[in-house]
Design brief:
Blueprint (H helix, E strand, L loop, with lengths): L4 H56 L6 H14 L1 E7 L4 E4 L14 H8 L4 E5 L9 E10 L2 E11 H7 L1 H44 L14 H50 L7 H29 L8 E4 H11 L1 H6 L3 E5 L6 E4 L1 H18 L5 E9 L2 E9 L5 H4 L23 H11 L4 E5 L3 E9 L2
Parallel strand pairs: 7-9
Antiparallel strand pairs: 1-2, 1-5, 3-4, 4-5, 6-8, 9-10, 10-12, 11-12
The structure holds adenosine-5'-diphosphate and magnesium ion (MG).
């Protein structure tokens, strides 16, 4: 990966860390430097001032008997590790502290330095003092006044190199501390970045596996943060996909199975008719069966197409006000034949004479048809069906209850699934395809209504809501 998160984070944070520590190191070094030089300067000044007193007498006397002064200068030279010069008011060097400086005696320091001293100001500078010193030094100068008259000055030079040499240890320590801090910061950065990028890699790997059709892949990310959240959502998604895939497989299996049996019987009868196995006088009978089977095939394909398009949301809903009791009565009439042939006892109890509702009449009729169809189909002979309406919190509630074998609690949730139908081996299978309730539920959900099913010892009850007009 050319532009991995890991690389990008590493570079950005890495640059920030290095930059931050570099600034810190530079400031620390500067602060140390200033501190040490300042310290040194103070010491030099102090000694310079002391020497100035002694030098004053010598300078005042003109040509000095400077032996004791020079001795003192030498002591100080060793003590301070600095060279000391005494200049007179003309800037001529009249005394020095070291023997190898004696060549400087009688030389003159630059006018401008003298001028400051003459004003009573002390001077300080870094460098080799106009080439008069061999190495780069820190110089402080202190003026000497005798009876308020400028009579010269004391210049103290300390080697800068030596000052710095003394504190090299501290510099080194500081640098090491900073380097180690940078290393630790980098280490922590590395670990943190891995904590972010590893799970991301894992997720992307798993996504590829799933895209390849292996839906069982799951992640186990325990970072305790948003990435763990992401991992969990991912797992949920994988689970849904797995379920969808399983449904799809079942669906195909179911469809193939449900289409195959009528088609095989159609083929069998037609073959029988063509090759004469079925005698001429039975042909009409079998052709009627073929017709029935063809109609069933058309119905199942229509139902499937309809369910499919409903689930894609292409159901167009036209809500209007209509009277519900009349609609229900019409449905009862439509099922009259089935009801009377099974000698069913049907009761319709409405809570008011006319109940106006606001919904899509065509779709509500389809819901009623499917539920009535099931009720008639699954009620045993001489059983009873009750349709009851009531009102509650702005909605009309319709209950359709029929007697008969109850639906087990685990099956209750599954009746809505496509192709779910009662086990044919139990002899209750009535040739449906298990699509009716799936269609009902889809319609109800698109109408924004609710439907539920309950079942007791000897009854099954479907209940749904319709918006009141
Ligand atoms: N009124 C009812 N009484 C008992 N069982 C029912 C009733 N309605 C539905 N069921 C159960 O739910 C299943 C699914 O119903 P449905 O989707 O309408 O399919 P189908 O009518 O084609 O069997 C039925 O096969 C049956 O097992
Ligand atoms: Mg049905």
């Amino acid at each position: 990966m050319k532009n991995s998160i890991r690389k990008r984070l590493f570079i950005t944070y890495g640059v920030a860390i290095v930059f931050g520590f570099a600034v810190l190191a530079l400031s620390l070094l500067r602060i140390f430097d200033q501190y040490f030089i300042e310290n040194r300067k103070e010491l030099l000044y102090e000694q310079g001032r002391k020497v100035a007193k002694e030098a004053a007498t010598v300078l005042y006397l003109g040509s000095p008997d400077s032996r004791s002064l020079i001795k003192d200068l030498q002591v100080l030279d060793r003590f301070l590790n600095a060279h000391i010069w005494v200049v007179n008011s003309d800037g001529i060097i009249v005394a020095v502290s070291g023997t190898n400086e004696e060549r400087l005696l009688g030389r003159q320091v630059r006018e401008e330095k003298l001028r400051n001293l003459a004003k009573g100001e002390s001077i300080e500078e870094r460098g080799n003092f106009d080439g008069m010193l061999d190495e780069s030094s820190l110089t402080v100068g202190y003026p000497v006044f005798v009876n308020n008259r400028f009579s010269g000055g004391v210049l103290v030079h300390a080697s800068l190199y030596e000052i710095q040499e003394n504190f090299k240890g501290i510099y080194r320590l500081t640098l090491w501390a900073i380097l180690i801090s940078v290393a630790i910061a980098y280490g922590i950065l590395y670990i943190q970045i891995r904590r972010i990028s590893n799970p991301l890699k894992e997720i992307s790997g798993a996504a590829k596996v799933i895209a390849g059709g292996e839906f069982h892949k799951r992640l186990s990310i325990n970072t305790g943060d948003e990435i763990e959240e992401l991992g969990k959502s991912f797992n949920n998604m994988a689970e849904s996909l797995e379920k969808i895939e399983e449904n799809r497989r079942n669906l195909i299996a179911n469809i193939s199975h449900d289409l195959r049996s009528p088609m095989t019987s159609i083929r069998g009868f037609i073959e029988g008719i063509l090759d004469g196995t079925i005698p001429e006088d039975k042909r009409e009978h079998y052709l009627n069966i073929v017709l029935d089977e063809s109609n069933r095939l058309i119905k199942i394909t229509n139902d499937l197409l309809e369910l499919g398009s409903m689930q894609q949301g292409s159901l167009d809903i036209k809500k209007e006000v209509f009277e519900l009791n009349e609609t229900i009565r019409r449905k009862l009439v439509a099922y009259e034949k089935g009801i009377s042939s099974k000698r069913l006892d049907v009761v319709f109890s409405m809570f008011e004479e006319k109940t106006f509702v606001l919904s899509d009449q065509v779709l509500i009729e389809r819901v009623l048809s499917n539920l009535m169809d099931n009720a008639v189909k699954f009620t045993p002979e001489r059983g009873s069906i009750e349709i009851r309406t009531s009102a509650k919190e702005g909605v009309i509630i319709v209950e359709i209850t029929n007697t008969g074998e109850p639906i087990s609690s685990e099956e209750l949730n599954r009746v809505w699934e496509r192709f779910h139908k009662r086990d044919a081996s139990r002899g209750i299978y009535k040739g449906g395809y298990g699509l009716g309730l799936a269609i009902v539920r889809e319609i109800i959900s698109q109408l924004d209504e609710r439907i539920w099913v309950s079942s007791g010892e000897d009854y099954v009850k479907f209940t749904f809501t319709i918006g009141k007009a």
